[in-house]
Amino acid sequence: MKTKSWKKDKVEVITLGCSKNLVDSEVILTQLKGNGIDVSHESGESNPDVVIINTCGFIENAKEESINTILNYSKAKEAGLVKKVLVSGCLSERYKEDLRGEIPEVDEWFGTNEVSKLLREFKVDYKKDLLGERVITGAGHYAYLKISEGCDRPCSFCAIPLMRGKHRSVPMEDLVSQTTNLASKGCKEILLIAQDSTYYGLDLYKKRNLSELLGRLSEVQGIDWIRLHYAFPNGFPLDVLQIMRERENICNYIDMPLQHASSEVLKKMRRGSTLESTKELLGKIREQVPGIAIRTTMMVGHPGEGEKEFMELCDFVREQRFHRLGVFTYSHEDDTFGGENFKDIIPQEEKESRADELMAIQQDIAFEMNEELVGKELMVLVDSFEKGIFVGRTEYDSPEVDNEVLIEPGEDHLRIGDFAHVLITGTEGFDLKAKIQNR
Ligand code: SF4
Prior knowledge:
Elements: E1 10-15, H1 19-34, E2 38-41, E3 50-55, H2 60-78, E4 84-89, H3 90-102, E5 108-109, H4 115-120, E6 142-146, E7 148-149, H5 160-164, E8 168-169, H6 172-184, E9 189-193, H7 210-218, E10 225-228, H8 239-246, E11 250-255, H9 263-268, H10 275-288, E12 293-300, H11 307-320, E13 324-329, H12 337-341, H13 348-373, E14 377-386, E15 389-393, E16 405-408, E17 419-428, E18 431-436
Parallel strand pairs: 1-2, 1-3, 3-4, 4-5, 6-9, 9-10, 10-11, 11-12, 12-13, 16-18
Antiparallel strand pairs: 7-8, 14-15, 14-17, 15-16, 17-18
């Protein structure tokens, strides 16, 4: 009996949510391409034959966006514009049994750890020899390196362990070979991502091994910038700071989601840290890696955050002057500790006004810091060319989430993926303006 071959069909992958989901999509792309299937990522292909929607299920807004995307393609299928709709990722992992009945147009639902099963929809198998390979969805000069999956932490508000499971470190050899492969394709910057990057190694090597991993990755030829994301404050392995200080190609940058500063709220969040321990850690980070840029994320509106606790958070942000800061409002997630034990009594408007107030404090700090850079020379990595100017980032900025440098083109012919020395000539909100410095 002749089986349908999918080799001729156009497959489109859509990624929602975080950079970890993007890496999962890149693994799916790599496997489909490696099996000769014509697949693209968010190419805007009008009527692909098959759509794979890699969803996010983190908080309310993200879930809504995922559902809307699924419904859009379900309507396209009903209209005969798309043959097949497949859904994977966190929302599917968490709610696929409910959603299967609610959206019957979807052909199949896959969990966060079911790539092999998804590939069988195309009558192909998972190719182990493609492990070190990775199709990069972006311009290719930077790439995310997912060093572990899942999380063992008990944070009250977080549903990620429900969707991603327990913490599993990726073997160091695999990460070194992935990075070597990425560098051979022209990648110059790798961004280490995980749910909790500081937990790296505790399962596989029975010790926190992030510093050794950073050391190994910094020896890979061609990698000029290594950036650390998702560092958990409690139990932070201080030896990471030493390797950061010693290695030129490990960015003076750390993304450390703190979530709050009030000891009472941190306790309710089950973060295992206090205002004092947080200040002490930040002090050590700044002392041991002078000039380091610290990015953090705060959450407002968590149960137990009264006016006093929120004021404490505002004072803390004013005092600590983070380089980069993002703010989330608490989302009351079912099946989480918070969802089962707390009452979500703070009105959404109040949560949003607190988020605005905190971002206003941060904006003043960010603008002041930008002003201090005018007249300085910095190294930037060029990410794109838009509306006649080059857009780049300094060592202190991560793609997609942080500030940019707007570079007026000079005589020098710059290309995307080039490093360039620039002189900061001005500021534009959170961004910097610059011109190329001839070297
Ligand atoms: S560290 Fe906490 S917030 Fe982060 S993924 Fe784990 S449980 Fe969620």
